[in-house]
Amino acid sequence: MSIIEGTSENFEKEVLKSDKPVLVDFNASWCPPCQALHPTLEAMADESNDYKIVTVDVDDEAALAEEYDVSSIPCLIAFIDGKEADRRVGLQPRKRLEKMLGVK
Question: Domains of the chain, with CATH numbers?
Fold first, then answer.
């Protein structure tokens, strides 16, 4: 599965109503830590169908970022059964991201 681009239009379907755990990455193209995290998220998305990775550009989706109180990026929020289960800000190692999703 590849990374899903999250928007206001598909967020409910892809994240809140997902039958799998979802890691949402709130980011921006101008953010160096966000760009450093991207290859890890791509690898995770490509290597497992047990969860979803959704990326949300805070510049394009400012209302969504505001709704989820994102004030620093990268902001990673794990949703399980449609509810926020964990939140981390900043560059995170893969093992921590997997732990957030409850898969390792």
Answer: 4-98 (3.40.30.10)
Q: Render pLDDT for 72-103 as a digit per residue (tens, 0 to 9).
A: 999 999 999 999 999 999 999 999 999 999 98
Buried b (16+ CB within 10 A) or exposed e, 53-75: bbbbbbeebeebbeebebeebbb
Is 31 tagged catalytic? yes
Q: Out of 34, 41, 58, 75, which one is annotated catalytic? A: 34
pTM of the predicted model, to two decimals?
0.96
pLDDT in tens, 19-60: 999 999 999 999 999 999 999 999 999 999 999 999 999 999
Among this protein's residues, is 75 annotated catalytic? no
